[in-house]
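thought: user wants a sequence for this fold. calling inverse folding tool.
action: design(structure=
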């Protein structure tokens, strides 16, 4: 016979399966034996990564391996300066990456901090305190308000027990717990109300439970295992640079073979041809590219910090630029995680409440006009009941205290407000405070005598308070239950009999509020004579006078709707994934504009009934997922990735951590987010503002566009170098560029302008286009053509300048050195002119060349460095350069300007021709403006 699930077992089943008597607990010997079998009640961290290993990981990129190969070849050929220079560049690249990522693998250590350090257990009939890690299945645990649940428990006894599970399930309010069996076999985690889960917090009441799972077997342990076994995704940029590295290796090897074979066929010595081939291979590889990419990303990190986004994993900066889906948790991310009363119903009147969070600012409006509670007895009574029948406290705290607080904080006009207690009760305290009915103002008028706590069976809470005229019983709770205890209703200022017609009006109002995803509480009272004693809940909660309804919700963040609208214009889909109820999730999604017409919603139970193929078929049209587990979230992210999406996953709870780690980019909330979520993420929002994601996406797109700009710039130079060298050898000319000169151009002369392109301002319509494809080739959208065409012209003009200088005295060794210096200067200047063309996808004439002051400074610096290499006597022997005369400079400057001038004129002419044909030149230019 198949064993029942834990939530289906009754007390006898538990006693038999766990071999424990609930009133006695385990013996020490039994506990020791079970600990040997199950291990300690703690989460394993898996394989730790050392700082040294993390540093070595920075050198696994394919482009870095290519450069290491070039270093080895240069060393074998005796070019030690080349080798040292390349190694320095590689080390710089590694250090920059390491500094950004050295804290990336601490998720599980943060997760362990959520487990309780000690627990009260029943051992051999006595209550003892033991370290929580020593708990074993079968231990009987005692808990009270404020305790953290130390393991997964099956409740044996509960008394007004409420547990805050939002970090695990996404439920926005504490969940009432009970000890009854649940008959259904398949129950979502958030509905397993007779179980308690490791790491959650008891906010109210007391309970007794038996340990059913410990350590990695707990629900928290399953999350830890998911984090351990979820591999971080390779970013699109890493993929593209790996493609580029492989292409350059093939090109370098192909050129080497071609030159060696062609040279030997022409009767040239094999060794000389091999050296020439290696020179071409060096020319083919942009040695500075990895470091420049890293610097561009690091500069992007600094800009993002100013926009409240903290980057933890460097390559993820660019990944945001091609995000096509944002999967967001609801509670604490799209919403504030602060229950707020938004609607009231009193005497058939509907009222709206403004303001949100715990700040006592806002109004009560009826038909758009502010209500004066001095003239509204029923409203005044509802506010009094909400404040008196309540155990929550709202405290004003100083801004310095507010820093670092993760929950219950509201910033309003420089003041912070912190909740202590149940969020539902906190919402009622805040409602009363907005209208001046504060706890302090009531303290002198009313004194609490008795409390009948809320429990999940009665679904009511009552308090008895005394005042000068007698006593007042205040009651709040579930409307459908409360109505049955009411004989009268406060209607239009008078106490009248609660007729069936009036009850139906209350029920209709309750249903209307509930359908809008509001959590609804009813309020009632009755006057009690000063000397009358009330001895039980049943006696107290009868003959009540019904007052009204209060509807509350965890409200959306104010800025989120606009942010989602911006995402939609940028071609980015927003998906809500939550552990909360479907009705609530769909209502919030409708308010925020997440759910379009025809969009689907899916529950965790529905996810369990379909396989991955069915999920893949539905995932593109599904916008809301409710009552989902951490495993479901991970499955949704992976399904979207299989469909070709670049997925950003946001969240703040422990239950979000596995999916955040698996996503292409994981985003955690910095204030409300748990440490676990932050450590699993790539990006942390320091202001918990969903709209910061949009700013980060814009920054990511800008960074990738700039990376394409300097790849275009660097590779056009490399193509020019290759063609210069290749055709010189094919024409049996002397070598126009020496390896050390090529390396200088690639690393130093080209490096500064390339870095300046990394901070170039983006085009204004950057966020008006759909995201690029994750696997789109880095040379897409004519970038490859631009590199080859510009490179061909640069190479042709460089070789032409070399030949014109050489032909005046071709046999003279000094003339060869002068011609090589002309080729070197022509190549450098051609590139420095071409860099301004790289700022625009159209032509050099479409953007102000002086707009990027860093680029202007970099170009001037590169010119000075070039002149230094040519005119400083100590450097001339190293770089084999000689000073040039006026004739040579004339040849150099004309040859260097031709490539960019010709291509610029060609682009302008082509654009005008397109307009004359009616092709919409402006549209074409705009559509090609965004980098792929």
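)
observation: tool returned 932 residues.
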């Amino acid at each position: 016979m198949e064993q029942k699930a834990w939530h289906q077992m009754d007390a006898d089943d538990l006693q038999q399966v766990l071999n424990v008597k609930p009133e006695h607990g385990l013996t020490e010997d039994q506990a020791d034996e079970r600990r040997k079998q199950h291990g300690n009640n703690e989460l394993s961290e898996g394989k730790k990564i050392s700082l040294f290993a993390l540093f070595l990981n920075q050198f696994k990129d394919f482009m870095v391996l290519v450069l290491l190969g070039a270093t080895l070849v240069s060393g074998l050929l005796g070019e030690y300066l080349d080798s040292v220079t390349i190694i320095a560049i590689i080390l710089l690249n590694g250090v920059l990456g390491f500094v950004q990522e050295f804290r990336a693998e601490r998720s599980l250590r943060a997760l362990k901090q959520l487990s309780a350090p000690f627990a009260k257990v029943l051992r051999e009939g006595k209550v003892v305190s033991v370290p929580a890690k020593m708990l074993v299945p079968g231990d009987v645990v005692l808990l009270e308000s404020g305790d953290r649940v130390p393991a997964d428990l099956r409740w044996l006894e509960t008394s007004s027990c409420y547990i805050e599970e939002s970090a695990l399930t996404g439920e926005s309010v504490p969940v009432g717990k009970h000890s009854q069996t649940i008959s259904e076999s398949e129950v979502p985690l958030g509905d397993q109300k007779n179980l308690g889960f490791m790491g959650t917090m008891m906010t109210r009441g007391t309970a007794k439970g038996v340990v059913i799972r410990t350590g990695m077997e707990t629900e928290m342990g399953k999350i830890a295992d998911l984090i351990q076994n979820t591999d971080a995704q390779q970013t699109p940029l890493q993929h593209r640079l790996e493609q580029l590295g492989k292409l350059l290796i093939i090109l370098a090897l192909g050129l080497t073979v071609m030159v060696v074979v062609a040279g030997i066929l022409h009767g040239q010595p094999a060794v000389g041809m091999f050296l020439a081939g290696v020179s071409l291979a060096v020319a083919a590889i942009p040695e500075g590219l990895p470091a420049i990419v890293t610097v561009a990303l690091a500069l992007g990190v600094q800009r993002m910090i100013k926009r409240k986004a903290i980057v933890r994993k460097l390559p993820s900066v660019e990944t945001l630029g091609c995000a096509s889906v944002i999967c967001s948790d609801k509670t604490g991310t799209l919403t504030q995680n602060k229950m707020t009363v938004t609607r009231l119903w009193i005497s058939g009147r509907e009222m709206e409440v403004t303001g949100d969070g715990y700040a006592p600012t806002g109004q009560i409006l009826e038909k758009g006009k502010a209500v004066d509670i001095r003239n509204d007895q029923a409203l005044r009574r509802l506010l009094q009941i909400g404040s008196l029948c309540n155990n929550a406290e709202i405290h004003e705290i100083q801004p310095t205290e507010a820093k670092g607080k993760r929950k219950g904080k509201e910033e309003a006009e420089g003041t912070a407000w912190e909740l202590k207690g149940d969020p539902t009760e906190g919402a009622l305290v805040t409602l009363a405070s907005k209208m001046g009915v504060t706890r302090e103002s009531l303290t002198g008028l009313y004194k609490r005598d008795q409390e009948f706590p809320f429990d999940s069976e009665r679904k009511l809470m009552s308090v008895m308070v005394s005042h000068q005229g007698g006593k007042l019983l205040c009651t709040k709770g579930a409307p459908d239950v409360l109505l049955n205890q009411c004989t009268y209703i406060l209607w239009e200022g008078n106490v009248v009999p609660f007729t069936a017609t009036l009850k139906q009006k209350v029920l209709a109002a309750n249903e209307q509020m509930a359908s809008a995803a509001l959590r609804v509480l009813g309020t009632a009272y009755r006057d009690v004579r000063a000397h009358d004693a009330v001895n039980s809940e049943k006696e107290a909660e009868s003959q009540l006078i019904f007052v009204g309804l209060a509807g509350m919700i965890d409200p959306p963040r104010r800025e989120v709707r606009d942010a989602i609208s911006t995402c939609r214009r940028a071609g980015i889909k927003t998906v809500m994934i939550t552990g909360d109820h479907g009705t609530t999730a769909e209502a919030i999604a409708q308010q925020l504009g997440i759910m379009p017409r025809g969009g689907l919603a899916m529950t965790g139970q529905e996810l369990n009934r379909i396989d991955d193929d069915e999920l893949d078929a539905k995932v593109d049209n599904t916008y809301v997922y409710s009552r989902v587990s951490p495993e479901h979230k991970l499955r949704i992210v992976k399904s979207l990735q299989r469909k070709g999406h670049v997925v950003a996953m946001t969240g703040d709870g422990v239950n979000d951590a596995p999916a955040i780690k698996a996503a292409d980019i994981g985003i955690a909330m910095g204030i409300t987010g748990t440490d676990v979520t932050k450590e699993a993420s790539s990006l942390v929002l320091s202001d918990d503002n969903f709209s910061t994601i949009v700013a980060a996406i814009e920054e990511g797109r800008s960074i990738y566009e700039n990376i394409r700009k300097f790849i275009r710039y660097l590779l056009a130079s490399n193509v020019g170098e290759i063609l210069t060298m290749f055709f010189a050898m094919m024409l049996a000319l002397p070598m126009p560029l020496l390896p050390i000169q090529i390396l200088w151009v690639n690393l130093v002369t080209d490096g500064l302008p390339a870095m300046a392109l990394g901070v170039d301002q983006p085009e204004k319509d950057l966020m008006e286009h759909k995201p690029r494809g994750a696997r789109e080739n880095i040379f897409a959208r004519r970038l490859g053509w631009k590199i080859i065409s510009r490179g061909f012209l640069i190479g042709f003009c460089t070789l032409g300048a070399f030949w014109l200088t050489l032909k005046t005295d071709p046999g003279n060794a000094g003339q060869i050195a002068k011609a090589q210096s002309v080729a070197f200067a022509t190549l450098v200047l051609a590139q420095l002119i071409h860099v301004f063309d790289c700022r625009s996808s159209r032509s050099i004439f479409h953007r102000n060349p002086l707009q990027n002051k860093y680029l202007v400074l970099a170009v001037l610096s590169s010119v000075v460095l070039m002149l230094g290499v040519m005119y400083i006597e100590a450097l001339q022997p190293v770089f084999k350069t000689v000073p040039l005369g006026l004739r040579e400079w004339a040849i150099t400057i004309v040859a260097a300007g031709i490539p960019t001038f010709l291509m610029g004129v060609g682009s302008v002419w082509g654009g005008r021709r397109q307009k004359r044909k009616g092709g919409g030149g402006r549209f074409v230019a705009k559509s090609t403006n965004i980098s792929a």
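thought: summarizing for user.
answer: Here is the designed sequence. Confidence is low (pLDDT under 50) at residues 103-109, 400-413, 919-932.
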